[in-house]
Amino acid sequence: MRSRRRATASALGAAALLALASDAHAFCRTMTCPLPPDFAPGPDGCVPADFASFCASLSPPAKPLPVWWRNACVGYDIQKNASRQIAYDTASAIVAAAFAKWTSATCATEGGDAGSSRVSIDVRDLGPVDCDAVQYNSNQGNQHVIIFHDDVWPHDDANNTLGLTTVTFDPDTGEIYDADMEINATVPLSVGDPVPPDGYDFESIITHETGHFLGMAHSGDDRATMFAHYTPGTTSMRVLTNDDVSGICSIYPPGGMRAVDKSASPDGSGMVVEDACDPTPRHGFSSECAKPPSKGCAVAPSAEGGGETAAGGGALAVLASSLLACARRRRRHAHRSTPAC
Question: CB under 8 Å, gap of 24 or more: what pairs does 196-201 form?
Fold first, then answer.
């Protein structure tokens, strides 16, 4: 499924800043800097040892920061036509269930008590939308859309890439501004049980992609939902492992906080208080794709940038992550920066 780190897809561990590899966990967080093309997260770490210098060598240089949603709840939408293979109502139910697996995860509480509390992030289905394009707009309404490609998968590795999640974020803080998913419906998607030996379980795919949507990267644990490769005919990715739960709890711990890079928190603690629940996308909600802007910018894998400045300054960046069928063993990444929005 490999989320696009292009958008940030396989996100990486918080580089040198979040030494996730030093813990007993294999989970990784999506980063604002792309992984080197010849590196994939594994049991030994989420990023290579020289990751900070690699990020500094890019043009423009990138800060290796973990990404995160500020709002207590985030909206999403499904393209109204869904797919010829999966009707809208069916897709809606499966997507809602997939998100719920992440947002209902319980985290161990700190201290001597052996209790647990739910993660502090929720999602809201804002309904079907007309827009079927991956984009982010600074001066028009937006939607966090889930798109199905029935006829042509518009990305390379068409026989292997099953899903792609594109995340737009503030490169100075890692705050996510927008997230869109694409599902490859040119392969035989399956709903329900049993999944045919050559079938691709939609519930497994979308559970993986919703993890990317929330800021998770590919895990080094081959049993995890966030592992980069899916084996046809299987359903194990439907169920979050302890590694997946530890990952989502590391971003959105109970109590309404966000774990961020220390440079992104006002007091340098590495924690930011969530904003009150408002699932409306940044710059408002729209069911329609944006019209070409006369000013400002629209951000998407193929969009042109304009000249507005975002609060916080700096360039707005886009990353993507994707899920692959198990035959594919090498990850690909792309990175794109545009003027801030």
Answer: 196/233, 197/232, 197/233, 198/232, 198/233, 199/232, 199/233, 200/162, 200/230, 200/232, 200/325, 201/230, 201/233, 201/234, 201/235, 201/237, 201/238
What global pTM score does this model have? 0.84
State how far the Cα of 67 lies from the Cα of 231, in Å rounded to an integer. 28
Topology at the third CATH level for domain 2-338: Collagenase (Catalytic Domain) (3.40.390)
Here the tokens at position 221 are 């644990």
Q: Note the pLDDT tens digit of each residue in 127-161.
A: 999 999 999 998 899 999 999 999 999 988 655 68
The domain limits of the chain are: 2-338
Query: What is the DSSP pairing of strand 145-149 with strand 176-184?
Result: parallel
d(CA 211, CA 215): 7
> Tokens in use for 18?
């979040």
| Cα end-to-end distance, the chain, whole Å | 28
36-58 pLDDT, tens digit per residue, is 988 989 888 999 999 999 999 99
